[in-house]
Specification:
mainly beta, about 120 residues, 2 helices, 9 strands
């Protein structure tokens, strides 16, 4: 049986991050996001209250020190784990099952003055 990696490991070129707000709390999520957020980046709200941060300028990061799960671009696909290529949107292993979302359907999320809200 072949082992499946559920997250990216080591140094990778990050096109974004999943900030797991329910797991780490609003305060820690804001701190991690504001440390990395550039004015050109986009922050989106996922259906399960996690944040999807899409970076305008992908950069190499150490996945162990990233603010959340690292997203790597493969063509039109953003993947939170090594997955077979092809497709578009966003893919991750969630509770051991490969799940996909359409990024364009996620609402924008903003951070202002230490609080979060929809624009």
């Amino acid at each position: 049986m072949k082992r499946v990696e559920l997250i990216h490991r080591g140094h990778v070129t990050a096109a974004g991050f999943i900030i797991d707000v329910p797991a780490i709390g609003q305060r820690e999520a804001r701190r991690r996001t504001l440390e990395m957020l550039d004015p050109a980046d986009r922050l989106l709200l996922m259906p399960d209250e996690r944040w999807l941060m899409l970076t305008e300028n992908p950069a190499e990061v150490d996945s162990d020190r990233a603010p959340g799960a690292v997203l790597v671009r493969d063509g039109e696909l953003l993947a939170a784990a090594p997955v077979p290529g092809g497709g578009a949107g966003f893919t991750e292993y969630r509770f051991g099952v490969l799940a996909s979302l359409t990024i364009g359907e996620l609402p924008p999320w903003i951070i202002q003055g230490g609080s979060t809200s929809e624009p």
